[in-house]
Amino acid sequence: MADKSFRRQEFSSLVAAGHALSRKASNPDFHIHNNYEIYIFLQGHVNYFVEQSCYQLKRGDILIFNNQEIHTVVNLKNEVYERITIHFEPKWIRNLSTSQTDLLACFQNRPKGVGNLSHMEDEELATWLPIIEQLISCSNDPSYGSDLLTQSYLVQLLVFVNQLYHNSAQSSSGSIPVKVQPVLHYVDRHISEALTLDGIAEALSMDKFYLSHLFKKETGSTLFQYIVVKRVTLAKSLLSRGYSVSETCEIAGFNDYSNFIRTFKKITGFPPGQYKKQSRIPR
After folding, report:
1. Separation of alpha carbons 87 and 81, rounded Å
2. Mean pLDDT over residues 17-35, rounded?
3. Is 190 helix (H, G, I), strand (E, B) or coil?
4. Which secondary structure element, helix H or strand E, spans residue 259, and what is its range?
5. Is 256 within 8 Å of 277 (Cβ atoms)?
6. Cβ(41)–Cβ(57) below 8 Å
7. Which end of the chain is more exposed for a tag (fewer CB within 10 A), N or C?
């Protein structure tokens, strides 16, 4: 599949937090981050895709993503929706964890795309929204002491999110829209192989133009974008586990080494070799 430009959000600080009301997300396509993310939904009508799960969100829902889970939001009614997003550097938080309290547990100790959703009742939301607003304010404030206050508020929130996650009855995943289930399953099963629109359409006995339109309509993203981001996500996992750049290129399904280097850097901000060096962290 041909190359294209990919949107990548840059976060210049250890914590990037914001409260937004809009019809569109800052990145409306399938994407991944180098940081971890907490997403708090407040109002609107959206579907949120995480890997092969899809959640129809309601007020008080909390989604969590690690840096190897692809995700995207679909605004079902093209109306303004309200959410809070908090991105943070996992290595920094790992250093704040203790032997008793692993602040990253709910982000890491589960399969990708499974158990991302927890829920706050109205009383909990009323308690935590002022704290989260303080976190947002401090994270955007360069004045003396704001960094330590940001850290304090984030640690409180992470303790709560982990407690909420572990106390929730976790379903295995959200439900995927029926029409795109076979497409997502096929791509995931064949991600290391050559994938083309023609080939996927033929394998699924679908018209390729219908397939392309259907995927965009249901997910808000293109099939090409989904495939490439899935491959980069697999590449991140392989590199962090010690695979060489050339091995990773082949296993992740990239058909050209230079294309792999270029695409990986566009999406993650780092060349694969540099990412490998900095991502080798103990679990």
Report:
1. 19
2. 91
3. coil
4. helix 257-268
5. no
6. yes
7. C
This prediction's pTM: 0.87
pLDDT in tens, 85-130: 999 999 899 999 999 999 999 999 888 888 899 999 999 999 999 9
Residue carrying the six token digits 């940001």:
150
Read off the DSSP letter of residue 220: S
- The rounded distance, in Å, linking the Cα atoms of 83 and 22 is 9
3-state secondary structure 106-126: HHHCCCCCCCCEEECCHHHHH
Q: Dig out the tokens for 72 from the structure.
A: 């995207």
Beta carbons within 8 Å of 82's beta carbon, 6+ residues apart: 19, 20, 21, 41, 42, 43, 44
Cross-strand partners of 39: 63, 85
CA 219, CA 229: separation in Å to the nearest integer?
A: 14
Rounded to a whole number of angstroms, the distance between the first and last alpha carbons of the chain is 35
Torsion of CA 11, 112, 107, 146, to 10 degrees: 10
- Of 113, 60, 67, 73, nearest in space to 93 by CA: 67
| Locus of tokens 């997910």 | 219
Residue ranges in the chain assigned as alpha helix (H): 90-94, 105-108, 122-139, 146-167, 181-189, 197-203, 208-219, 223-240, 245-251, 257-268, 272-279
Specify the pLDDT at position 170.
Answer: 54
At residue 45, the 3 state secondary structure works out as coil
E strands present in the chain: 15-22, 36-43, 46-50, 53-56, 61-65, 71-75, 81-88, 117-119
Contact 127, 75 (CB under 8 A): no
